[in-house]
Amino acid sequence: MDRRNYLHAIAGAGAFATAGCLGSTLSFRDSNPNVILAEPEREYTSEELPYPAWGQRVPDVTLPSSIGSQTVTIRDIETPSIVTFFYSHCQTVCPVLIQTVRNIQADAIENDYADQVTFLPTTFDPQRDDAARLREYSKTMNIAVDNDNWQFLRPASPERAKAVVEEEFGVTFERTHPDDMDIYMFAHSALTYLINADGYIERAYRTQAPDISQMITDLKPLREQ
User: Fold this and answer.
1) For Cu cation, which residues are the binding ones (predicted)?
2) Residue ranges of the binding site for Cu cation
């Protein structure tokens, strides 16, 4: 089953809950010349998963930076990068994901490796997450958004968000309108990628609350390479 059909199948079943982290326990049974970290212990190979995973090339995607004026091709970033997916009106999973990435950025600034990693949180709600909204969100979340290593990425349209976030990166999301709220929300899965400087995926943390210490540990050999 290809990724698109798999995603549609689980979406139809209402399977937006996240699975466990596939990221941290190492197994040395296999090797891949394109990655630095050993293969994580898991039940499936990368090819069998419905999202890009260890040893695979990150999707060849170019997106506008919401606050800056440039576009960013994720595959061409010259440092290791951390990519996650969110929307700023989320009140549950997304603040945890963004706070996790923010805390790694803070560690990078404090320990003088801010120029050795790039952070690329990507919204799947481009209708509301414009530059003004994300600047406000940055202040709320205490993000050093003016540091060159942080770029909010924003697909040009909801259709582009679906094509990139769900079909390329395997993050499922569906718009909802709760009865007790005046604004729409999203039911969505959670996935954070650690990508090396050559554009290959080292880790896919499929969890709502990634382990910050483990991510910093995983990042270290990538940035020192």
Assistant:
1) 90, 94, 188
2) 90, 94, 188
